[in-house]
Amino acid sequence: MKPIIHFDRSWYESFFKHIEEDGPWAKSELFSLAYLAEQARTVPTFHGLIAPSRLPLLKPHPHQVETARIVIEEMHGKAILADEVGLGKTIEAGLIIKEYMIRGLVKKVLILVPASLVLQWVSELNSKFYIPAVPQRKTYVWSQCDVVVSSIDTAKREPHRDIVLDQDYDLIIIDEAHKLKNHKTKNYQFVQSLKKKFCLLLTATPIQNRLSEIFYLVSLLKPGYLGDAESFAKNYKSGSHAVRNEEKLKALVNQVMVRNRREDTGLRWPKRIVKAYDIPFSMAEKDFYDSLFELKERGMIQPFSLLTLQREACSSREAAFTTLNKIYKETAHPMNERLWHHIFEKMNAIKQNAKAKKTLELIQQINDKVIIFTEYRATQLFLQWFLKKNGISSVPFNGGFKRSKKDWMRMLFQNKVQVLVATEAGGEGINLQFACHLINYDLPWNPMRIEQRIGRIHRLGQEKDVHIYNLATRGTVESHILNLLYNKIHLFEQVIGDLDRILTHIDLKDVDKQVAHIFEESESEGEIKVKLDNLSSVINFEQNHLSEGDSHAADGNS
Amino acid sequence: MQQTEIHDFLVRFFSSAECELLPVADDHDQLKVKLTKAMDKRLMNRPFYWHYIEQIGAEPETAVLNFRFSDRIQEGEFIHSGSPRLHQILDASEKMGRYIRMYQVIANKLSPALEPWLCINMKVSYQCDLKKDRICSMGLQLINGTMIEGFQSVLNTLHLSQKLPDYCYTLRPLITIKSGLTRIEHFIESELQKENFDWADHAATRWGKDLQLLDAFYEHQEEKPERYVQEKQALKEQYQPQIEVTLINAGLFFLQSAAFLPDLIKDR
């Protein structure tokens, strides 16, 4: 095919004018320098990457550079980046944007990310890649700025929507793209309507599991690549979940998707060293914990509320008090007054918190940066107070903090104080890899939340082995959970990302709800144990099954 | 660009822009420049400051740029092949070095006639979903139509001056600038037509494949939705092979051709 040849003649007029008016003429040296400047910036070959040489401070990992190259040269700029968590998808995306910009193939870029990540993307692109990205704050930004970062929710809303759909984007990047799996949602249709030349979809959740999800994601990228919905179903679906022609589908998908696995990167990943502590209640704490049963026996609370209270009581009396006080106000009646008096008396009798004492002991032993995670705000405050009383300063961290506050707390933790007490993994958006000790003061029931917690420190850039300390109170709901997560499904030794895959595959996204059901509906300790064992064997079975499948898939790729 | 090349470039740039180079401890790894007013306005992006200073008629304090070229030095802005500051300066040099007129200074005073040459430096970009470029420097003698490729490197060997030397005179061109430009374009175009277009063929194949998929995707829809048209257009923008020729800079040169001809003649 003959290429179209086009001469830019827009400069003719001004050149003629210079001749006519005899100047102003450039200096000889500057004429030569202009030539040199352009020479330095020409890219003499179609292949290879220029970007890394222009980013001498970045030091990307080989798999990141290779990914950028594959996306540009072999996938022609339309790809799903599905690396496992923590392998640096943002770096890969940055390299791709940069390469395209250097070569002049891309000017206008739209980056859609979760609202909480907008500023982080902006700052990474600017500081690491010298890409002048701006957050969308004012309406005019859409048309005036070349590289804009925004949340989907903002972009799809009027008055933005019409303006955004009117722009001709050279490159669109969508972070957390697995959220676009449903083609009937407004978000999906909005993204589908965007004008784009190149497109990157970033997701940490492997999408092999749900057939329709993969179909709709790929169709966003390359409509028709997997056929239309009908032919896709015919060719690859068998029943509601099972796959036909799996090998063929995998091969097709692998041509539009890059998925680096931790074990393939050749990077040394720090080990996870996990210790569990089974801590007995003090007498007073035990009394208080037991007294909570009476509320249920009297029919004043539902089993679910009891469970909540018990978990809180395992954390701290402060955490339990908040809920207890609410229930008290709702059920206050002279008839109950004695019972309540009894319970609050027990609560007040608690003079020390066994887990807090253990925590203090651990912190003193560790003598290094420590992150403590708790589920409860009240416990967070209590712990800060308790540690301060024992001469240890700490900073708080909540998922709800504004970006600037998060950064500030992170800085304080990095430079000034030994301990950070966090209520939420803030799953997205904070990297604490300068610390390598993490205390799970209480355990969330959803294993994914634990993964996210650990993911804050066990990621690329962590140079030391990671130590995880799990605290559970003996003979309570907590010890059951610890047993399930720790001994049964070996959660803490898992490779990040695997768990998510397993849970998605067996439709067990809401493990916490399952667990709650088990506690609520079981009549005895024995029943709880049996049911939890069943749950863990289901997860374990799937885990073995998937890891076998993996080794096959890996063979197929090479 | 290597660090030493960047260093040389900056020294040449700031010197020719009449900015003062300040003394530094290590003149290999460091460069300190006191900007002129014009350069400050061009590089420092502070229009309000200049507006204010000019309003009150105060003496301006122009900025000092302090660059470092390696890690051995702590102080100053680290400059490298990707730093935005360098690219800002490269951009500035391209703007400031666009059009020129020069005369050759010749030793031989017996033949004081200088012939007019049109010089155009261009960038030729080959683009589909990938892109590469090359530089093309053309010179055209405006009397007899002699054409030279690689003209800039010829110029680099000559002694040139902004002013017509006293003892010289220039010959009148027979070819107008306008038709000179057309001649050069025609020449480049015919050269381009002779090139190997494998890259374009490959891009066309990729394009065709994706078009086929797209058509199949919307096959069952009698009335094609707007999205179909949009996707089709996007594929064109992604893959359509094209060659774009853009200007770097251009100039009129009055030279004595005997100084560098005849071995470089390209076309007549």
TrEMBL record, chain A:
InterPro entries: DEXDc_RapA, Helicase_ATP-bd, Helicase_C-like, P-loop_NTPase, SNF2-like_sf, SNF2/RAD54-like_C, SNF2_N. Pfam families: Helicase_C, SNF2-rel_dom. Coiled coil: none annotated. Residues 70-224 form the Helicase ATP-binding domain. Signal peptide: none annotated. One of its GO terms (molecular function) is helicase activity. Keywords: ATP-binding, Helicase, Hydrolase, Nucleotide-binding. Residues 358-500 form the Helicase C-terminal domain. SUPFAM superfamilies: P-loop containing nucleoside triphosphate hydrolases. This is Helicase. It comes from Sporolactobacillus terrae.
From TrEMBL, chain B:
It comes from the Bacteria. Pfam families: YqhG. This is YqhG family protein.
